[in-house]
């Protein structure tokens, strides 16, 4: 059967609602609107919710704003502050904390380059703590960052690299930034998801690897992701649905043509999609043509949010000093 593919918890919940016309047992949902940004909080509470959602127990917070595709300076600042507030709440920051930020993805493939680009804009401080032999600081967190690349270029599983770093650097928490996939084109590059359940590197481009989570690393892992692509098969399936809906409105109820459209099964749609995508091994991802500029803007927003959230002395007055 054709499976709708998405990394967003809010979309999994929407799919369930569309089919069952009810909320998922074991899942709590809350939605707020703040400064033009829709914040959806999905919390998976138990194993039943985990099984239905296909995602680990934990919190999934989504910030959604259409303007993120072409944000002005004010919108960047607004979203950065909102995201920083959510990061602080999840990380549970006290005065002294050691944080490792991991930028997942391939810097040579723009839709997958979000993680590495965020890393390049962070105000890292661990080397300063070591240089001056400081254990803590009231104004700055001890922040280290790494972009480990992808298995295709390093030959090493990303999880193995991060586990080795964690064992040596001994951070209190890991923040992992990666590209995701959405089921709707309208959410591509307009949505930021945070979760407490960790992340599978490469999930956004269909290459799931060893999980980065508390179970594998031994410390909490907060994932920050943006859907930068939509699966072509998912997009095609949605297009077929719209075509059927449009044709059905034009056809006479009870006519042979209408009945043929209405009775078109998922399996039949699946085979149509498979036939079209067969030359590409059915592994085609779609992203907007302005993806270079979009990824640059999103990396600014996320890096600013992390800098503000983790370093008490940094705010919007000087945060852009660390952006290049």
TrEMBL record:
NCBIfam families: GPR (TIGR01441)
Gene Ontology MF terms: metalloendopeptidase activity
Complexes and interactors: Homotetramer.
GO terms for biological process, alphabetical: proteolysis; spore germination
Post-translational modification: Autoproteolytically processed. The inactive tetrameric zymogen termed p46 autoprocesses to a smaller form termed p41, which is active only during spore germination.
Described purpose of this protein according to its UniProt entry: Initiates the rapid degradation of small, acid-soluble proteins during spore germination.
UniProt EC number: 3.4.24.78
Reactions listed under catalytic activity: Endopeptidase action with P4 Glu or Asp, P1 preferably Glu > Asp, P1' hydrophobic and P2' Ala
Family: Belongs to the peptidase A25 family.
Enzyme class: hydrolase
Hydrolase as UniProt keyword: yes
Keyword set includes Iron: no
Record's protein name: Germination protease
Propeptide positions: 1-7
Keywords attached to this entry: Hydrolase, Protease, Zymogen
One Pfam family it belongs to: Peptidase_A25
């Amino acid at each position: 059967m054709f499976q709708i593919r998405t990394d967003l918890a809010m979309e999994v919940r929407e799919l369930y609602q569309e089919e069952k016309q009810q909320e998922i047992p074991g899942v709590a949902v809350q939605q707020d609107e703040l400064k033009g940004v829709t914040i959806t909080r999905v919390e998976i509470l138990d194993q039943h919710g985990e099984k239905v959602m296909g995602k680990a127990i934990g919190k999934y917070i989504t910030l959604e704003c259409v303007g993120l595709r072409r944000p002005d300076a004010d919108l960047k600042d607004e979203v950065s502050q909102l995201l920083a507030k959510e990061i602080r709440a999840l990380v549970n920051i006290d005065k002294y904390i050691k944080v490792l930020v991991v930028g997942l993805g391939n810097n040579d493939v723009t839709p997958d380059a979000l993680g590495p680009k965020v890393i390049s804009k962070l105000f890292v401080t661990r080397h300063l703590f070591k240089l001056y032999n400081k254990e803590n600081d009231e104004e700055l967190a001890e922040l280290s960052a790494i972009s480990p690349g992808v298995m295709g270029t390093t030959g090493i599983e990303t999880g193995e690299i991060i586990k080795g770093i964690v064992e040596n650097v001994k951070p209190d928490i890991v923040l992992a930034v990666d590209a995701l996939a959405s089921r709707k084109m309208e959410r591509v590059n307009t949505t930021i998801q945070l979760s407490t359940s960790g992340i599978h590197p490469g999930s956004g481009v269909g290459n799931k690897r060893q999980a980065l989570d508390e179970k594998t690393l031994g410390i909490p892992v907060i994932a920050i992701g943006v859907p930068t692509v939509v699966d072509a098969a998912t997009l095609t399936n949605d297009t077929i649905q719209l075509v059927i809906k449009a044709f059905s409105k034009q056809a006479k109820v009870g006519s042979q043509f209408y009945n043929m459209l209405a009775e078109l099964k998922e399996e039949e749609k699946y085979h149509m999609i498979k036939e079209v995508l067969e030359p590409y091994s059915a592994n085609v991802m779609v992203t907007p043509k302005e993806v270079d500029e979009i990824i640059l803007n999103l990396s600014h927003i996320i890096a600013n949010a992390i800098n503000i959230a983790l370093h008490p002395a940094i705010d919007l007055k000087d945060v852009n000093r660390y952006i290049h």
